[in-house]
Specification:
The structure holds two protein chains of two kinds. Chain A is of the alpha+beta class. Chain A has seven helices and four strands. A four-stranded mixed β-sheet of chain A has the order 2-1-3-4. Chain A is elongated, with a radius of gyration of 17 Å. The two termini of chain A are 17 Å apart. By secondary structure, chain B is of the alpha/beta class. The model of chain B has no long low-confidence stretch (mean pLDDT 97). The chains are: A alpha+beta, B alpha/beta. The interface between A and B is large, with 44 and 60 residues.
């Protein structure tokens, strides 16, 4: 699920993913997750591949993709940054933090920074509620994110400094 | 012999730097020639102390916390691995920390104690004894035990779990399902996450017992996509369970079958509503279904289905191991057993507090939580998630009990307690409740889909001072329509925080609030 594993759209790879998962009960969400994990998004072409495989209409598939906040049909920036907007984080200053994030990045929610480093998304709770405000970058959650800490985090993403794991 | 050191590995501990800490400690141990065995345990949920490093000593586990990377040199200097307490971060014996000692940990007895993925650890701490007992019982006897325990649905609705199971047991079908609702979307809650990240075998065991009880052979855990670590942990634990005949077609050599799979949600709060969840599992948009028919009769793929919250299923191994009475002995009135409360928001000592029902909200927030983190006066508390009421000080002596909260027009829900200091603007909070409903409504019924948008607009007009009285009346009407006219709790409860904010914090619903904050 890390953006580093994302590969460019490839219909044959997509077809293989769909083929592998299509016989599972309730296969659509697992398929959509697998496609988005691989390609970073679910392009319109994918809908035309999924619908016949699941013997459903393209409208149904599109409806599912657009219903869920997690799925996207546009390629995001190199990093998806999710800002928790929920109450426990509000009580710890999340409103000021989200305003700061939008202002410093120069984008609103669902927007991608000009250099394509960051796509900003709202999220309603990351389950880190005792240590908010919380921000998720890829699969990493960050706690007690002050505006200053947010700036450091963004600088790290921009300079692509790789942390030795 | 190497000294065993525990460093927690749940989402919050990691968010506070536990992984970096573990790496640095490993490197320093090599550098200084100290033999340490670092175990990544779960978290005990004492979040203000995370990362909480524990040292295994003959006197028990000694704690240090919160430990930052920069503290490690000094800790090595005082040879912390001997458990010595000559350091400002020393906490003494972890089990003696009052916050932990004063809890009644039935469900969370193992959290933070064991390595979450070690089946041996789980078994050494009473794990899978409940299943062994269940395998010796017939289905009805298992259901009877759950009924006798008094366990009620921990997702928030508090419906008696045993009665739900009985309905599914009594339903005739060639296929039945157990569905675990792990779409823990309420802000201020993380107890489900802690179960899945710190003690995943407990959930697997609970679901397996549930399967035996109602005759279901397939289980699904519907997990929210905001919990990537829980996804990974559950899948590892499930693989281990299969490898050890604890899942599959011959559980513990009994010939009984139970299969289990984790399915990932996709960021839709409404999918925590059980019928919406089932639609989502079937691969559809998460539109709420009308009830009846109940999911227990017509559930997943049209088959009889138990849909239970993580905490309900996680309570089952204890009940089957220690007996229904041991569980029912805790609590008050019709609220039996324990509820894992979660203290969050502006709180000094945030974390998980598992208590038998009965103490007051005030005891929870002050004796455990220690008041606000920034020291400002506490003003409002939202209990039970984004659909729960805001409680002013006059209600803080309410007992933590389903019925007592209902009597105050509030809900305990999933046990989330979000604390706000006196800088909170309650009209802004009320507006957010409506805004959240706009974002998360499934759109099936009109009061919720459209009413929420109108709600945001009306609150905006009130906040701008436009026809205040008339608009407050309109808002009251609108709230009533949502409560009475919505299909599910999303629309039906969105007004609770709004109405409680107006009722108890009416001074915030004027264009120029004249509240003066005290100096702290």
């Amino acid at each position: 699920m890390s953006n580093t594993d994302i590969t460019p759209w490839h219909p044959e790879v997509a077809g293989a993913i769909i083929e592998e998962l299509k016989s599972r009960p309730g296969a659509l969400l697992p398929i959509l997750h697998a496609l988005q994990d691989r390609f970073g998004h679910i392009p319109a072409e994918a809908v035309a591949l999924i619908a016949p495989a699941l013997k459903t209409t393209r409208a149904e598939v599109h409806g599912v993709i657009s219903f869920y906040h997690h799925f996207r049909n546009q390629q995001p920036g190199r990093h998806v940054v999710e800002m928790c907007r929920a109450e426990a984080c509000q009580a710890q200053g999340a409103r000021a933090l989200e305003a700061h994030a939008k202002q410093t990045l120069g984008i609103d929610y669902h927007g991608t920074s000009e250099d394509r480093t960051v796509t900003l998304e709202p999220v309603y709770c990351l389950g880190n509620c005792a240590c908010g405000p919380s921000v998720r970058v890829g699969d990493d959650i960050h706690a007690f994110v002050t505006p200053d800490a947010f700036d450091v985090l963004m600088d790290d993403l921009k300079t692509e400094r790789l942390e030795v794991k | 012999m190497n000294t065993r050191i525990y460093i927690p590995s749940d989402t919050t501990a990691k968010a506070l730097g536990a992984d970096r800490l573990a790496r640095k400690m490993t490197a320093l141990a090599v550098e200084r020639g100290v033999g340490l065995e670092i175990v990544r345990n779960g978290s005990r949920g004492l979040y203000w102390l995370e990362p909480l490093v524990e040292v295994d000593t003959p006197q028990g586990r000694m704690g240090f916390g919160p430990v930052k990377e920069k503290d490690l040199d000094a800790l090595f200097d005082v040879e912390f691995w001997r458990g010595g307490q000559d350091h400002p971060l020393a906490l003494g014996a972890v089990e003696e920390i009052p916050y932990l000692k004063r809890q009644q940990r039935l469900t969370f007895a193992r959290a933070g104690v064991i390595d979450p993925l070690s089946l041996a650890d789980y078994r050494a701490h009473s794990g899978y004894q409940g299943l062994s007992n269940a395998l010796a019982l017939d289905a009805q006897a298992i259901v009877d035990a759950v009924k006798a325990s008094g366990l009620r649905g921990r997702g928030g609705a508090a419906f008696p779990t045993g009665i739900k199971w009985q309905t599914v047991l009594d339903a005739c079908a060639e296929q039945k399902y157990i569905v675990c609702n792990a779409d823990e979307g309420d802000s201020g809650t993380f107890a489900d996450r802690l179960v899945m990240e710190c003690d995943p075998f407990m959930l697997i065991e609970g679901m397996t017992i549930s399967g035996l009880a109602v005759g279901a052979t397939q289980g699904y855990i519907y997990l929210r996509s905001e919990y990537p670590l829980a996804f990974e942990t559950l899948n590892s634990a499930i693989a281990t369970a299969y490898a050890n005949n604890l899942l599959g077609d011959n559980i513990q050599g009994s010939g009984c079958r139970f299969d289990l799979e984790v399915r990932m949600g996709a960021g839709a709060y409404i999918c925590g509503e059980e019928t919406s969840l089932l639609e989502s599992l079937e691969g559809k948009r998460g539109l709420v279904r009308a009830k009846p028919p109940l999911p227990a009769i017509v559930g997943l793929f049209g088959k009889p289905t138990v849909v239970n919250n993580v905490l309900s299923l996680a309570a089952v191994p204890f009940i089957l191991d220690q007996g229904a009475q041991a569980y029912a002995d805790c609590g008050m009135g019709r609220s039996r057993g324990t509820l894992p409360f979660q203290l969050s928001g502006n709180v000094k000592r945030g974390g998980l507090v598992e208590l038998a029902f009965g103490p007051s909200l005030r005891e929870l927030m002050f004796d455990f939580g220690g008041g606000t983190r920034n020291g400002r006066p506490l003003r409002a508390v939202q209990v039970g998630g984004p659909l729960g009421a805001y409680l002013p000080e006059s209600q803080w002596d309410t007992a933590l009990d389903y019925e007592a909260f209902a009597g105050e027009g509030a809900v305990l829900g999933h046990g989330g307690v979000v604390m706000f200091d006196d800088s909170v603007d309650m009209s802004e909070q009320a507006r957010f409740s409506m805004e959240f409903c706009v974002a998360e409504s499934c759109g099936k019924c009109t009061p919720c889909r459209i009413g929420s948008t109108r709600g945001v607009e009306v609150i905006d007009r009130i906040r701008a001072g436009e026809n205040r009285e008339a608009n407050l009346e309109l808002l009251a009407d609108l709230c009533e329509t949502l409560v009475d006219g919505s299909l599910c709790a999303m629309g039906g409860m969105t007004p609770f925080p709004v109405q409680s904010a107006i009722k108890h914090f009416g001074e915030d619903f004027v264009s120029t609030p004249n509240r003066v904050l005290e100096e702290v």
